[in-house]
Specification:
Strand order of the largest sheet: 11-14-15-19-18-17-16
Number of helices: 21
CATH topology of the domain at 238-261 and 335-496: BirA Bifunctional Protein, domain 2
Shape: flat
Strand content: 15-25%
Bound molecules: phenylalanine
Radius of gyration: 35 Å
Oligomer: single chain
Low-confidence stretches: none
Number of strands: 19
Length: 501
């Protein structure tokens, strides 16, 4: 029988009467467990060995656990310092003991919370009274740390406590044991010849031309292998791209524009009065340097100013409140991408547009919100608008129904709403697939004449801002947006979440 080197070695090292683990074989053969595992699976495929698998749990020390194993658990160090200072007879001020025990930073709280729990003593009004006959040498958690570090076992309740404290971590693994089958024994008796099968193509093999005569080992695609995570497009980016594809498919063109913009484009062009509470309570992220925009179309400034002061049309009223150009020139991170819609509708971005037109963007916006499961300080907005003659709310609803149905969402709901820049306005809601909760997914409406006339648009424009992250929640069932985005994100989830097309 001819076998590649690793397989021949494993076959010879295996026994018919005693199963040997992959780790034992690897140590005996001075090979890596990966090589032995692979060879064992190939031998098993050929019927020469049997592999038995057993789920096994291993417990290892975290960096913090390792540190305490070397330096002593903080509560034990506090107890020893307390005994040294005579705290078993008379309480000693805490500050003094912390210095003696060499404890500072987070270790102080850790020492204090475990000290009393383990019966090392009491802490009252800033002084420590130590239990005279406590035995720090018999500390079960310290003993467990030592035992686990040495590869041994420790009592379950000690391990649980250490795990709770973040000093050890449990890992699930599989232990594989190999035994020779009858066929394997026969094969061995008949004699095994080592074939020079090549396991991996090297640059040498290729340049020397040796690959022409080499015998290549077959791949075993069923063998267990270490998981290697390659780079991968983030689910949010992937969903953003999918949204773009859907909108392009619906006849929309993409807008682009600055993340930092003048309040003029973010608010004033939208007929948001300068003294509107939203312009302060929206908590904008203002820029201090540069502070203002220089480049604004003078004639548009004038038309917007007049719309704010006097209104638009015969029965227009306006706000009759002061309008300050400098206030409009202030720069901030955009709180919505409707600033882009203003730049495009005004002709500032790509020149004057004739109806019909459809535009969208899927871009970041910034709001000083309080972080929670459904709010981030920055998120992606799916902005969009349609410019055409004779648009109605029916068109708006139809567009959303069409858009969301492309993502399998067929039960969106509408609620009348108020925006200073649209009339009528609607908020959109969808049902969370896991919790069943109705969540807000967007805001929309038909732009008022006070917005459109200064921009020089004389037909209807319906528009919206939808939250990409909420769409993600509805399509994937995420419950906490922080699992997907930001420093608390769940890497395992991001690595393994399935792609939806
Ligand atoms: N700017 C609105 C969305 C919107 C855009 C356009 C028209 C109506 C509403 C928001 O951020 O909530």
């Amino acid at each position: 029988m001819r076998l590649p080197q690793a397989q021949a070695a494993v076959l010879e090292a295996a026994s018919a009467t005693e199963s040997r683990t992959v780790e034992e074989l690897a140590a005996a053969l001075d090979e890596s467990p990966t090589t032995v595992t692979r060879a064992a699976f190939e031998l098993a495929d050929a019927g020469l060995v049997a592999i038995e698998e057993e789920a096994a749990e291993s417990v290892s020390l975290t960096d913090e656990g390792e540190r305490y194993r070397e330096e002593g658990l903080p509560e034990v160090r506090l107890y020893r310092a307390a005994i040294d200072a005579g705290a078993d007879e008379e309480p000693v001020p805490m500050g003094e003991l912390l210095g003696r025990a060499g404890l500072d930073g987070p270790a102080v709280n850790i020492a204090l919370s475990n000290f009393a729990r383990k019966g090392y003593g009491r802490i009252e009004s800033g002084a420590v009274a130590a239990t005279p006959d406590a035995d720090p040498d018999a500390d079960e958690e310290a003993a467990a740390l030592d035992a686990l570090a040495a590869g041994g076992d420790a009592p379950e309740d000690a391990v649980e406590e250490l795990e709770r404290r973040g000093l050890v971590r449990r890992e699930e693994g599989t232990v594989r044991s190999v035994t020779l089958t009858d066929e394997g024994v026969t094969g061995l008796m008949e004699g095994v010849e080592v074939a020079d099968a090549v396991g991996a193509v090297t640059a040498d093999l290729l340049t020397s031309g040796e690959w022409r005569d080499a015998e290549f080992a077959a791949y075993n695609v069923e063998a267990d292998a270490e998981t290697i995570y390659g780079g991968r497009e983030h689910i949010l980016r992937r969903t953003a791209n999918r949204v773009k594809d859907v909108l392009v498919g619906m006849g929309f063109q993409e807008m682009e524009g600055p993340h930092v913009d003048a309040d003029f484009w973010i608010n004033d062009a939208l007929f948001m009065p300068q003294d509107h509470p939203a312009r302060t309570h929206w908590d904008r992220f203002a820029l201090s340097d540069p502070r203002r925009i220089d480049d604004l179309p003078e004639d548009l400034i004038e038309r917007v100013r007049r719309a704010h002061l006097e209104g638009v049309g015969d029965d227009g009223e306006g706000y009759h409140s002061p309008w300050d150009e400098e206030f409009a020139r202030a720069l901030a991170l955009r709180g919505h991408t409707t600033s882009l819609s203003m730049r495009y509708l005004s002709g500032e971005a790509v020149g004057d547009l004739e109806p019909p037109q459809r535009y969208f963007s899927v871009e970041k916006v910034y709001r000083n919100d309080t972080l929670d499961a459904t709010h981030l300080l920055e998120f992606f907005q799916i902005e969009g608008w349609v410019m055409a003659e004779g648009l109605s709310v029916r068109d708006l609803m139809g567009t959303f129904t069409e858009f969301y149905s492309r993502f399998g969402i067929t039960d969106i709901r509408f609620k009348p709403h108020y925006n200073p820049y649209t009339e009528p306005s609607f908020e959109l809601f969808g049902r969370h697939p896991e919790t069943g909760e109705i969540i807000e997914i967007g805001n929309s409406g038909i732009f008022r004449p006070e917005v459109l006339e200064p921009l020089g648009v004389d037909c209807d424009v319906m528009a919206w801002g939808l939250a990409l992250e909420r769409l993600l929640m509805l399509t994937y069932g995420f419950e906490d947006i922080r699992d997907v985005h930001g420093t608390l994100c769940d890497l395992d989830l991001l690595r393994s979440v399935e792609v939806m097309h």
